[in-house]
């Protein structure tokens, strides 16, 4: 009986040691994997990998080169909805607010940055290939007909296109109705991508 107790104790000790070794290997493996991404979220892993519990890791942030914008759809008299599309080759995550600039003489490299007042809270939006996310940009309205005027007395600013900053670069976009962007002042309001 004494030998059986010793044998059981040895078996239990062996199992505990094996469990500790496995747990140590899993924890040691989590360190480098967690530091391979810069998502700011604890416990995340590199994109395209599988987590310890078998789930897929989150996609990488959307780079500008993977996104396209088709046009700016007017929403009322002083706002436009801008939609970006993930052209692939893989899913990505878009978060935050756009930057906005008026494209001087229609050229994105001769742009005039606008001050962006952020509206709402930014959340991560996962875009599969072909997936879309939108932001709404609202301008200070130009009053009156034809040439119009600004309430402040300043002359309105008119441009044929905007440069929307997203994914670390700028995407040039024109109104879908073929008109121009017209605004008063040097600022816009923008919602987070959703």
Residue fraction in strands: 35-45%
First CA to last CA: what distance? 69 Å
Which regions contain 5 or more consecutive residues with pLDDT less than 50?
Answer: 4-49
Average pLDDT over all residues: 76
Oligomer: single chain
The major β-sheet equals:
9 strands, mixed
Detailed description of the structure:
This protein starts with a helix and ends with a strand. A hairpin with a 2-residue loop joins strand 9 (162-166) and strand 10 (169-173). The strands form 2 sheets. Strands 1, 2, 4, 5, 7, 8, 9, 10 and 11 form a 9-stranded mixed β-sheet that branches. The chain has a two-stranded antiparallel ribbon with strand order 3-6. The chain has 194 residues and is of the alpha+beta class. Helices cover 18% and strands 36% of the residues. 21% of the residues are buried. Residues 4-49 have low confidence and may be disordered. The chain is built from 1 helix and 11 strands.
Task: Give me a quick take on this structure.
With 194 residues, the protein is α+β, with helices and mostly antiparallel strands.
List its traits:
194 residues, single chain, two-stranded antiparallel ribbon, nine-stranded mixed sheet, alpha+beta
Give the SSE layout.
Blueprint: H1 2-35, E1 67-74, E2 79-86, E3 92-94, E4 99-103, E5 111-119, E6 125-127, E7 132-140, E8 157-159, E9 162-166, E10 169-173, E11 181-191
Parallel strand pairs: 5-11
Antiparallel strand pairs: 1-2, 2-7, 3-6, 4-5, 4-9, 7-11, 8-11, 9-10
């Amino acid at each position: 009986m004494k030998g059986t107790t010793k044998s059981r104790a040895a078996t239990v000790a062996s199992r505990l040691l094996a469990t500790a070794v496995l747990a140590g290997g899993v924890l040691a493996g989590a360190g480098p994997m967690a530091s391979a991404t810069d998502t700011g979220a604890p416990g995340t892993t590199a994109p395209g990998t599988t987590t310890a519990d078998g789930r897929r890791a989150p996609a990488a942030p959307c780079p500008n080169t993977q996104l396209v914008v088709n046009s700016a759809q007017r929403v009322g008299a002083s706002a436009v909805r801008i939609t970006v599309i993930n052209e692939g080759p893989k899913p990505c995550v878009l978060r935050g607010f756009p930057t906005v600039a008026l494209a001087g003489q229609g050229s994105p490299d001769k742009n005039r940055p606008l001050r962006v007042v952020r509206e709402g809270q930014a959340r991560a939006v996962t875009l599969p290939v072909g997936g879309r996310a939108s932001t709404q940009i609202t301008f200070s309205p130009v009053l009156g007909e034809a040439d119009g005027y600004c309430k402040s007395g300043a002359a309105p600013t008119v441009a044929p296109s905007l440069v929307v900053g997203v994914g670390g670069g700028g995407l040039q976009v024109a109104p879908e109705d073929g008109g121009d962007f017209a605004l008063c002042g040097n600022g816009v309001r923008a919602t987070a991508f959703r």
